[in-house]
């Protein structure tokens, strides 16, 4: 999967020669100039599979959280239930696609999902449930009945006819029921034959009795099962040798099937359609107590007998054969090659890992197979504009490399909106990913600044704890104030709190806004002290000193004396410092407005000083 192979479009991974796995797209026209858009996991972009990804995510997370504290038996039952939940999601997606099936792409995807459920169900029986001899065959029968030879339409057609036993498909339906071990349904149909042909009543009753007495899962021990089955088998053999059914080829054929006659079963090859159906039927009537480890021998011989020399196994056959041979890693490998996305192998491997079946298999670079496949699947999710959120949880449950992958992928998420940025930020903060938090905040602050949204830019820079950027934005706020005469985003500036200590300039911005608030509330003495502190503490930019001194003018002109003599001297010193430099002196000489401001300030300060001296002298005299 690494290197050059990872660059192949996902759709090409399906073109391996079997219908459920074949790529839907044909080759481009000869000589045509084509541009191929290569995506990591093409299926991620299919709207019809969103349900599969979303619902299976919940099952996956639930398994990781709830699995550990269970007792062994309860744990096994829980794992089987989890497996069934995964299969129910696959089946629900198939049903949704059936309803929406409007073109070949839908039918192609349904066939892929059908093959996935077929493989998953077999793995559930053999590996998750680990059914022992006896129950094993019953599970395989359920598997065949669920996935292969759906005869419901054929049955409806036969039963809805005026004379079902005369219908051309009547015996086909009976044979399919027998081949799938559905004895009650086969007997029900045969009863219609007996009613329509009284001459065959004796044969029907004997065959019906044989089918009714067939021992299948009704006993408690294997020994008892084998004894009963042997006795029943001998009874079937006796009736066949006596020629009881010789006058009716259909019933005779059914009796041969009950005896496990391989040639008689293979004559119904077209009704079974697959070698694994033939395998289960063969075991049902020849070795119903087959042990799990004996399956490999019956599976290989059944495939050889069914396919013959005219056809070779396809990828789906190879995968199922690997399962019957209990070659778990080969199943995962073949599925990785044949299926068009990582969903199946990632979730199946995770489930099998919880079953403690993959503990000894580590990959050459250190990560185990479960983690490797989960990382690949989650990486594909991160390429989607919304499914990336699901990928976070998958990375969280990869203990070795998950954190590293998450850090790399989360930095590549396009932050199109503030809402999305906040979502990504929350994920990073929950996981103490401090570097990513700062990176996201800086990106959003820069975007806001470019769009002249100073409040948002300041908020993001504070969140990033970026003192330099906070200083830059504070300067923009002050510049904006000088141009417009008022502040924007007052709510933000008024509620900076301890955040204003991030940088001197931000502190100045917050305190300067506080000065305006105090002045607006007519708390002139407090406003005067704060204004003087801003100038003497040297946290105000030199370019803003004239603005601060100009703000002192209304306070100097108040009827009541606000500034003390000492404070007035401080203001005078600040004014002289401002005008003392050569460049500043030249600036004031060239600018009439600035010169006028300086003169007005000197006059106001002198008048205030005179008033203070008179007032303080009067107080001292009294």
From TrEMBL:
Q: Chief subcellular site?
A: nucleus
Q: Pfam families recorded for this chain?
A: Nucleopor_Nup85
Q: Using the UniProt annotation, give all residue ranges assigned to the region (Disordered).
A: 1-28
Superkingdom of origin: Eukaryota
Can you provide one Gene Ontology molecular function annotated for this UniProt record? structural constituent of nuclear pore
Localization of this protein: Nucleus, Nuclear pore complex
Instruction: Keywords in alphabetical order, please.
Output: Membrane, mRNA transport, Nuclear pore complex, Nucleus, Protein transport, Translocation, Transport
Picking any one GO biological process from the record gives: positive regulation of DNA-templated transcription
Q: Name one GO cellular component term.
A: nuclear membrane
Q: Does the keyword Glycosyltransferase apply?
A: no
Matches recorded under InterPro entries: Nucleoporin_Nup85
Q: How does it assemble?
A: Component of the nuclear pore complex (NPC).
Q: Which family does it belong to?
A: Belongs to the nucleoporin Nup85 family.
- Provide the function of this protein: Functions as a component of the nuclear pore complex (NPC).
| PANTHER family found in the cross-reference section | FROUNT PROTEIN-RELATED (PTHR13373), NUCLEAR PORE COMPLEX PROTEIN NUP85 (PTHR13373:SF21)
Protein name from the UniProt record: Nuclear pore complex protein Nup85
What is the scientific name of the source organism?
A: Meleagris gallopavo
């Amino acid at each position: 999967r690494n290197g050059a192979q990872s660059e192949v479009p996902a759709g090409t991974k399906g073109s391996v020669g079997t219908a459920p796995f074949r790529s839907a797209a044909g080759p481009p026209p000869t000589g045509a100039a084509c541009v191929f858009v290569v995506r990591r996991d093409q299926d991620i972009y299919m709207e019809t599979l969103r349900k599969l990804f979303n619902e299976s995510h919940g099952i996956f997370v639930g398994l990781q959280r709830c699995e550990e504290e269970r007792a062994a038996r309860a744990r096994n039952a829980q794992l089987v239930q989890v497996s069934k939940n995964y299969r129910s999601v696959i089946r629900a997606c198939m049903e949704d696609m059936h309803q929406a099936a409007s073109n070949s792409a839908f039918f192609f995807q349904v066939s892929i999902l059908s093959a996935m459920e077929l493989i998953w169900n077999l793995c559930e029986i053999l590996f998750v449930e680990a059914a022992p001899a006896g129950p094993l065959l019953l599970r395989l029968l359920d598997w065949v009945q669920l996935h292969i030879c759906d005869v419901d339409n054929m049955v409806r057609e036969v039963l809805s006819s005026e004379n079902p036993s005369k219908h051309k498909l009547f015996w086909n339906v009976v044979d399919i029921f027998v081949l799938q071990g559905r004895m009650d349904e086969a007997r029900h149909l045969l009863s219609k034959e007996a009613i329509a042909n009284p001459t065959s009543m004796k044969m029907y009753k004997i065959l019906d009795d044989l089918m009714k007495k067939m021992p299948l899962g009704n006993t408690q021990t294997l020994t008892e099962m084998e004894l009963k089955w042997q006795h029943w088998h001998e009874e079937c053999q006796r009736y066949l040798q006596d020629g009881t059914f010789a006058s009716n080829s259909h019933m005779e054929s059914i009796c041969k099937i009950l005896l496990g006659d391989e040639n008689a079963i293979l004559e119904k090859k077209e009704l079974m359609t697959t070698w694994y159906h033939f395998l289960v039927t063969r075991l049902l009537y020849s070795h119903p107590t087959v042990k799990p480890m004996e399956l490999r021998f019956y599976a290989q011989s059944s495939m050889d007998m069914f396919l013959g020399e005219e056809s070779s196994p396809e990828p789906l056959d190879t995968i199922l054969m690997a399962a019957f041979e209990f070659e778990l890693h080969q199943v995962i490998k073949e599925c990785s090659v044949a299926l068009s996305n990582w969903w199946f192998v990632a979730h199946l491997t995770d489930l099998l890992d919880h079953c403690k079946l993959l503990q000894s298999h580590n990959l050459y670079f250190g990560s185990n197979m479960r983690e490797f496949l989960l990382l690949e699947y989650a990486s594909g999710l991160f390429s989607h504009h919304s499914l990336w959120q699901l990928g976070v949880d998958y990375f969280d449950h990869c203990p070795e490399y998950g954190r590293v992958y998450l850090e790399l992928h989360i930095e590549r998420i396009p932050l199109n909106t503030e809402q999305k940025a906040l979502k990504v930020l929350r994920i990073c903060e929950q996981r103490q990913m401090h570097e990513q938090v700062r990176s996201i905040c800086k990106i959003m602050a820069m975007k806001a600044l470019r769009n002249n949204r100073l409040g948002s830019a300041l908020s993001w820079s504070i969140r990033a704890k970026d003192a330099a950027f906070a200083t830059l934005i504070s300067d923009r706020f002050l510049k904006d104030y000088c141009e417009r005469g008022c502040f924007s985003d007052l709510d933000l500036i008024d509620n900076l709190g301890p955040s204003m200590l991030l940088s001197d300039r931000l502190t100045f911005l917050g305190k300067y806004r506080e000065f305006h608030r105090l002045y607006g509330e007519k708390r002139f003495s407090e406003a005067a002290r704060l204004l003087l502190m801003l100038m003497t503490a040297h946290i105000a930019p030199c370019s803003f000193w004239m603005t601060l001194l100009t703000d002192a003018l209304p306070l100097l002109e108040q009827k009541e004396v606000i500034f003390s003599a000492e404070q007035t001297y401080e203001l005078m010193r600040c004014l002289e410092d401002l005008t003392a430099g050569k460049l500043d002196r030249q600036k004031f000489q060239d600018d009439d407005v600035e010169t006028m401001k300086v003169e007005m300030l000197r006059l106001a300060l002198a008048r205030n000083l005179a008033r203070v001296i008179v007032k303080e002298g009067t107080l001292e005299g009294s």
